[in-house]
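Hi D.,

Good news: the full-assembly prediction came through. Inputs first.
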Amino acid sequence: MRLEWNQQRCVGQGLCYAKAPELWDCDDEGYAVLKVAGDVPADLEEAARVSARSCPEFAITIIE
Amino acid sequence: MTEPVTDWQTDWDHADPAWADDPFAIWDGLRTTCPVARTERYGGGWLVTSHALIDEVTHDTDTFSSQETGVREPGTNTKKSPPITTDPPDHQEHRRILLASFGPRSIARLEDGIRAYCKELLAAVAGRSTFDAADAYTRHIPTKAIALLLALPDDDADQFRSWVRAIMVDGHEDPDARQQATADLKAYLRPLVAARRGGAGDDVLTTVANAELDGVPLDDEMAIGMAYLLVVAGIDTTWSALGTALWHLGTHPGDLARLVDEPELLPTAVEEFLRAYAPVSVGRIVTRDGELGGCPIRAGERVLVPFGAANRDPDVFERADEFVIDREANRHAAFGLGIHRCLGSNLARLELRVALDEFVAAVPSFRVTDPAAMAWTRGHVRGPHAVPLEVGPSPKGTRT
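Then the structure:
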């Protein structure tokens, strides 16, 4: 599983990094920063799905 | 007093008492029958109630301008308060002045001060069997948070709380009082902004006073407009959300018991309070003739965007009309969608989480005294006028 996101659509809603801090961080202005490159570790797959389904801007996609 | 609404499809009005009492039924009805509703009030406008249309209006900033974010009588809406009233291409530059001050890391520094203040307010009602949580608690917390953020004198809190009420809550009844309070608040901010020009403080008012656009310091009008926005946008919105959350807990004992037993659920519950009871509706102005959800729209018309209606759209949310305290994934639009996402969202979340955490720890059992007597504010921000509570006996095994 990989996480893909449309950075242009991110407006700093903040739910991804609140829901899955192992996978997402934020910069000083509150925009999301994806912490993992490539495959999502197996134990974080559920967190990845929740973070994708939490984005109000529909900016995150799960690739399986 | 305006004429009561009898047909929401052709004559909607967010100042109607029915909108305050139960907007959810109005939105649900319109979403299924007429997701772009019409009014001839306010110079003519549209009301959108589906998530898809709210997404469209908030993201198409070329067609839907933010230059007037209040849907009011034409000509009464002249305040410029960047960045909320700025469109692209200037918007991002205006917003950037404030963005880092409202980022999660900056806002986290306020937690201790807000928590200590909540404890102080709760100590003042300790032992009472009844009290109004709006009067004793919810209205004070956002005022304090803004005072901390802008480093305003604590002694002025009562004064600017009353200005905010006149501007945001009572303005529908009394436009003259709103104009006066707006002028008074700006007059209050003017010397504060001037005094902080050249200052080195890390408060947000100093940031605004010393901000530059293209190497030129903000002029007084812009700096004061920005400071004004921070005060009015951050206070009644948050006290409305917080008061509504306490109303919910005081009328849903099962949810209250869960929060008392499982305080770790609070961040998830806060998102559900925001989804189910998003207090804010914003306005846009149509910039060019076109079409919205199959309806012909004309330049100059208003569009009202109630974010709470997006949050209850069953196309996006399962069990959309239910409050699900442990809703795991919650892509609500309470803070708006698109480039105008509420700048203060991180602060609002912090206030809600801390204020509710302290409240249920101090008052683990309470109920709304007379649910049928609840009265709610009309217009752009919906919240309870008062939250009269009866305190119950402390359940066993709760935190003390």
